[in-house]
Amino acid sequence: MSEVVPPRSIFHLGSAEQKERWLPRLLAGDIVATAAITEPQAGSDLRNLQTTAIANGNAYRVNGRKRWIKLGGVANFVTLLVVSDRSQGAKGGTTRFFVERALSPWAHEEIDCVGMRNLSFAEIAFDNVSVPQENLLGGPGAATEAFLRAIEASRALVALQAAGLGGHALSLARAYVGERHAFGRPLARFQAVQTVLAEAEAEIEAARLLALQALWLLDSGQRCPREASLAKFYATEAAVRAARAAMDCMGAQGLSEQAGVERCWRDAQMLTVIDGAPAIQRLVAGREILGTPAFV
Ligand SMILES: Cc1cc2nc3c(=O)[nH]c(=O)nc-3n(C[C@H](O)[C@H](O)[C@H](O)COP(=O)(O)OP(=O)(O)OC[C@H]3O[C@@H](n4cnc5c(N)ncnc54)[C@H](O)[C@@H]3O)c2cc1C
């Protein structure tokens, strides 16, 4: 889940007092917060969440593990999704907390990934950790609707990020093929190079417009599950293809770390999975288009 989730969860679920306490610090960057949703055995299938929070006087006892948590090792706050009522399933049985590490410490173990190495990822563990009642966001069972709104925003923003990443890879390729010569002319004057880069440009521009369409709907206060998922899978896969095309046009130079284009390829691959894998985005969009779910 993306960086936008913590402020959005508080915006949608928090009381006036909670918003006043945390939102200014979050938006100013004084608080490093992340969202902890995914678990070792529950990624696409959030119905299988296992982390629990049991009321205990003025606090909750939290137990469970969360995996692939962006900045999970360095964040000082985490918005945590837990199961509060298994009988209600994922639709109504989840609850959100804004957990402060200084008060409710969690353990963590870093995970190395193929891309986005400017960030860190971790598995974080709550072993009978006490979380004060005032850190509960929105009351038991209120989390699902807010989560769905936040994830649409995240997917649209990841799509925009992917369009930017793919566009950057293409700009690196454009610069290179203008300079590099083969057979007495710049690479840019070969038809094979021009058609490859033109097709990738078309995909990246389409990706950007899909992302902007979803963001426009969100800005005007509407839900956009169809548009956010279309944008998410199309843009992230287009970014992988664009980065790959850029690498191909640059020959061995495209494979060198110095050129920077292989980093776009690795980072774009990461974006395909964050906030829901491509198959899941297709299923969400398909459900919205056809009016019936295909999830098992
Ligand atoms: C860069 C990155 C950052 C992340 N940051 C965070 C974070 O900060 N906080 C957080 O909570 N999580 C985070 N995640 C986790 C992310 O949300 C999950 O990885 C994602 O939801 C997929 O879950 P999974 O990896 O467990 O895949 P799985 O659910 O194990 O799925 C594996 C594969 O099976 C396919 N699949 C699963 N179900 C179906 C189905 N019904 N039909 C067809 N195919 C299916 C999927 O397409 C997928 O390719 C991050 C992940 C990445 C890659």
Distance between the termini: 23 Å
- Looking at the structure, the CATH topology of the largest domain is Butyryl-CoA Dehydrogenase, subunit A, domain 3
Mean pLDDT: 94
What general outline do the C-alpha atoms trace? elongated
What key attributes describe this structure?
Butyryl-CoA Dehydrogenase, subunit A, domain 2, 20% strand, Butyryl-CoA Dehydrogenase, subunit A, domain 3, 2 domains, 296 residues, binds flavin-adenine dinucleotide, 9 helices, four-stranded mixed beta sheet, 10 strands, elongated, alpha+beta
What does the model show?
The structure is a single chain. This protein folds into two domains: 6-140, Butyryl-CoA Dehydrogenase, subunit A, domain 2, CATH 2.40.110; 145-290, Up-down Bundle (Butyryl-CoA Dehydrogenase, subunit A, domain 3). It has nine helices and ten strands. It has helices at residues 5-13, 16-28, 89-92, 143-179, 191-219, 225-249, 252-255, 261-273, 278-290; strands at residues 33-36, 52-56, 59-70, 77-83, 94-100, 107-111, 121-132, 136-137, 181-182, 185-186. The strands form three sheets. The chain has a four-stranded mixed sheet with strand order 1-4-5-8. A four-stranded antiparallel sheet has the order 2-3-7-6, with no helix packed on it. It has a two-stranded antiparallel ribbon with strand order 9-10. β9 (181-182) and β10 (185-186) form a beta hairpin. The radius of gyration is 21 Å and the shape is elongated. The two termini are 23 Å apart. Residues 1, 34-38, 43-45, 66, 68-70, 116, 270, 273-277, 279-280, 283, 295 line the site of flavin-adenine dinucleotide.
